[in-house]
């Protein structure tokens, strides 16, 4: 036993050896060596290192985060969702698209796939509209509600957890999107069946062969605007001044073609109708309950 103890002691480095450290050659004299550690005494309690002090954070900051739940959830750009990954629309494009849609306090804006809530919040805060967001991720819905609270628009903005392909958003006057082309196409029949004049804006992605009424570009991104057109395809009896004639209108989204009369085509922008004659003249009017009405002309539907 004694021999074993001696061998162990000989194998241990001396206190002086344990304190040796390499010092680079320098004219500046090296710092003095630290005093050797006190020898261990059998049976003596071990000295514990001083506790590490956590950085001081303002209590009000922590309380605010916990109250609003941000300490529990923060989204990451690119995180997976039900149908798309989450990438937020730049604030500059949000404002540009809502401006292009001519949003006012009379509007009800619905954002499909609302994420952190920036479209509905901007619609309420900057344009005075009522707004609603639908998102499949419950954590994102909760975050959007907190963001609306922070923006001071909680009474004008609502959010719900739901599937955009099952939710009823037919009462919207403005629809906002940042999805994918195939999802826009899936929504297109529902959107085209909405009230004529409903405005639809999309970040980045189009609606296939339904051409946008406007393209909106900022330094950061591109978006599109569509205005749901009234459906006026069919045969019409026109009275234009003293002239009377019948013409058949065919419609592809907002574009019109015509046959059987002097009108050759035209376009529909919401409920506004512009018809073009072969000589280049235009008739401008509105879709009404009784047909088409413009200054100095009317048209009555006489066939589907």
Count of runs of 4 or more consecutive helical residues: 7
Secondary-structure content class: alpha+beta
Number of strands: 15
Q: Write the element-wise H/E pattern from the N-terminal end onward.
A: HHHHEHEHEEHEEEEEEEEEEE
DSSP strand (E) fraction? 25-35%
The description of the largest β-sheet is: 8 strands, antiparallel, barrel
Using the coordinates shown, work out and report the CATH topology of the domain at 91-227.
Rossmann fold
Query: Rounded to an integer, what's the Rg over CA atoms?
Result: 35 Å
Strand order of the largest sheet: 8-9-10-11-12-13-14-15
- Average per-residue pLDDT, rounded, comes to 84
Identify the CATH homologous superfamily of the domain at 91-227. Vaccinia Virus protein VP39
- Spans with pLDDT under 50 lasting ≥5 residues? 1-67
- What gap, in angstroms, lies between the N and C termini? 111 Å
CATH class of the domain at 91-227: Alpha Beta
């Amino acid at each position: 036993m004694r021999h074993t103890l001696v061998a162990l002691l000989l194998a241990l480095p001396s206190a002086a050896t344990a304190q040796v450290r390499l010092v680079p050659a320098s004219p500046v004299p090296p710092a003095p060596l630290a005093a050797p550690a006190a020898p261990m005494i059998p049976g003596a309690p071990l000295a514990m290192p001083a506790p590490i002090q956590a950085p001081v954070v303002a209590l009000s900051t922590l309380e605010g985060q916990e109250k609003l739940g941000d300490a529990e959830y923060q989204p990451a750009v690119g995180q997976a969702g039900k149908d798309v990954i989450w990438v937020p629309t730049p604030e500059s494009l949000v404002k540009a698209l809502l401006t292009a849609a001519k949003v006012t306090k009379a509007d009800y804006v619905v954002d499909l796939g609302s994420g952190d809530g920036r479209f509905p919040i901007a619609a309420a805060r900057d344009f005075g509209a009522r707004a609603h967001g639908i998102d499949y991720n419950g954590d994102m819905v909760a975050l959007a509600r907190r963001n609306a609270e922070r923006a001071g628009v909680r009474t004008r903005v609502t959010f719900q957890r739901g599937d955009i392909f099952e939710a009823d958003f037919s009462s919207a006057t403005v629809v906002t999107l940042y999805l994918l082309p195939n999802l826009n196409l899936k929504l297109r029949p529902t959107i085209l069946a909405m009230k004529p004049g409903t405005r639809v804006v999309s970040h980045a992605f189009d609606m296939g062969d339904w051409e946008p009424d406007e393209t909106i570009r900022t330094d950061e991104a591109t978006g599109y605007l569509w205005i749901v057109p009234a459906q006026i395809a069919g045969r019409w009896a026109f009275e234009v001044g003293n002239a009377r004639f019948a013409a058949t209108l065919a419609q592809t989204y907002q574009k019109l073609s015509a046959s059987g009369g002097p009108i050759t085509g035209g376009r529909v922008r919401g409920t506004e109708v512009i018809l073009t004659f072969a000589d280049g003249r235009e008739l401008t009017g509105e879709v009404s309950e009784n047909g088409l009405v413009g200054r100095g002309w009317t048209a009555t539907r006489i066939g589907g």
